[in-house]
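Bug #77: duplicate submission created two jobs. Keeping one. Sequence:
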Amino acid sequence: MSCHDTSVFRDLFDHSFDAQWVLSADMHIEHANEAASMLTGYGVEELVGQPLSLLLPPKIAKSHGAYVAHCNKHGETQGVLGEPRRFEIQARDGSLIPIQLKAFRLDGANGQRRFGATMVDLRAQVRLEEEQLHTMAQLKRLALIDPLTELWNRRAFDEALDRQCALVSRHHSAAALAMIDIDHFKQVNDTYGHGAGDRVLQLLAAHLKKIVRKEDMCARLGGEEFGILMPACEPESAVVVIERALQRVATDRFDLDDGRSISISFSAGIAAIESDAAPDSLLEHADAAMYRAKETGRARVEMWTPEMGSAFANA
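Kept job's structure:
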């Protein structure tokens, strides 16, 4: 290679946007370009003569030392050369920088073994990937959230009910399902307008989230109907929880946006989640119990019994 060619390749090395390295056989840095200095925070003169392990986090440095020893003893590179690898290096300030490394053998005229390496800074790419993952997580969450009440929606509730039924069947644990429907909700819309109706739904959702247990799942199932999934809860305890919620809601005033306030109540039905129970059947049972509560005076909580199923079927 002529001196001119050597100068050209040296310019390519020095002016590359990516960090470029020339390493000795024992992985000490012989040459580094300005991009390597910018990437690591070390000056070029500080890097030259240092072992490559200077830039490796402790866990990687340990395995790298074993790799270098193996390479020097056996003359093998264990498939590392030529294959892009993604990991982190440690900058001068101690921060970890994600990079993609591609290492390759350099054949010197004197037969002395050297290695070249290119490190591509992946920080911008990693930030973009994290932003994309965050966006995807938000979109997935929005697909499962009711936009009006910010409770879980019907899809999320059905998926959770499927999982809960499987858990009960597997572990024979206790769980309950409650269905809630606002009493005379049509009158609220007719008297005060649909905006007031939406406000009532939002306020009831906020009440339910405060009243039920932290482990319970509240969802708006559609219209003025809500569902509450109650894991690790005996049916009798579920009745107590929902009755407490009913009493709290019945004694509160719901302030509308126009300054007026109204009182509301709801009717609720509860079904025990038992082993081998089908989610669709449980929803029907809780729904039947809820309608029994409405038929017997509203503002009540009813537990589903097989007798209700017979009456519901004959209605």
